[in-house]
Amino acid sequence: MRDMDLKQQLLFVESYLPDAYEYLTDTGELPKFDENDELIKEEEKHA
């Protein structure tokens, strides 16, 4: 992420913020993303 310019970083954060915030309010934990930038949900890790 360090090689992105500021505008790219902002667009990246804006795209993930809604999912991350929803996860945080639902679980009380910070979300984790896999190598494909998909949100890893708790039930998927235990499956």
Short description:
57% of the residues lie in helices and 9% in strands.
Give a short account of the largest sheet.
Answer: 2 strands, antiparallel
Q: Would you report the number of β strands?
A: 2
Strand-and-helix sequence, N→C? Answer: HEEH
Cα(first) to Cα(last) distance is 30 Å
- Backbone structural class: mainly alpha
Count of the domains? 1
Rg, alpha carbons: 12 Å
Backbone shape: elongated
- Supply the number of helical segments: 2
Low-confidence segments, ≥5 residues, pLDDT <50? none
Main-sheet strand order equals: 1-2
- Determine the mean pLDDT: 76
Q: What is the oligomeric state here?
A: single chain
Q: Residue share in helices? A: 55-70%
Strand content: 5-15%
Protein architecture, described:
The chain has 47 residues and is mainly alpha-helical. The protein has one domain (6-46). The protein has helices at 6-27, 42-46; strands spanning 32-33, 39-40.
Could you list some keywords that capture this structure?
47 residues; mainly alpha; 2 strands; elongated
Write the layout of secondary structure elements.
Elements (H helix, E strand, L loop, with lengths): L5 H22 L4 E2 L5 E2 L1 H5 L1
Antiparallel strand pairs: 1-2
